Amino acid sequence: MTELASKQRPKRPEFRNINAFTDLPSYRLPLAGIVSILHRISGAIMFLLMPFIIWMFDTSVSSEISFARFTSAFNAGMLGLPGVIWKLVALALIWAYLHHFIAGLRHLWMDISHAAVSKEFGKSSASFTLAASIGLTLVLGAKLFGLY
């Protein structure tokens, strides 16, 4: 027993609180972490823009006159803001929906498959999620702004 008491144990690492101003700027977040944070941000954007979503749906399907008012809001503008601003808001909403949907499918797949819970799958699925959501947003944004 004296032999065990006399041996020095290796020093255990100390974990301290992270200082947001000094530690976070130098912290390198993995791609899966960025996608996870963007998943939360896209959900918040969709939640905050819910009145705008309801207005767009209601105005576009009520009647032909309200649909004309809906399209003029995106062409000429409304509430003192030009139509480009409303198109950018709609584009942000499109990105939020696409990213949230694709990242949600990614999370569901990781819940279903134990093989999907690995570093390699996390990195590859995160890069696919970012590429697919940004690519589809660019395609739909080109349609929204009348490029085709």
Summarize the structure.
The protein has 148 residues and is mainly alpha-helical. Helices cover 70% and strands 0% of the residues.
This entry's quaternary arrangement is single chain
Strand content: under 5%
The pLDDT mean sits at: 86
Structural class: mainly alpha
Please give the number of β-strands: 0
Order of helices and strands: HHHHHH
Specify the helix fraction band.
55-70%
Report the biggest beta sheet as strand number plus sense, adding barrel if it closes.
none
Distance between the termini: 82 Å
CA-based gyration radius: 24 Å
Overall 3D shape: elongated
Low-confidence stretches: none
Tally of DSSP helical segments: 6
Structural account:
The protein has 148 residues and is mainly alpha-helical. The chain contains six helices and no strands. It has helices at 2-6, 31-48, 50-61, 64-75, 83-112, 119-144. Helix 2 (31-48) packs across helix 6, helix 4 (64-75) crosses helix 5 (83-112) and helix 5 (83-112) packs antiparallel against helix 6 (119-144). The longest helix is centred in the middle third of the chain and has 30 residues, at 83-112. It is elongated, with a radius of gyration of 24 Å.
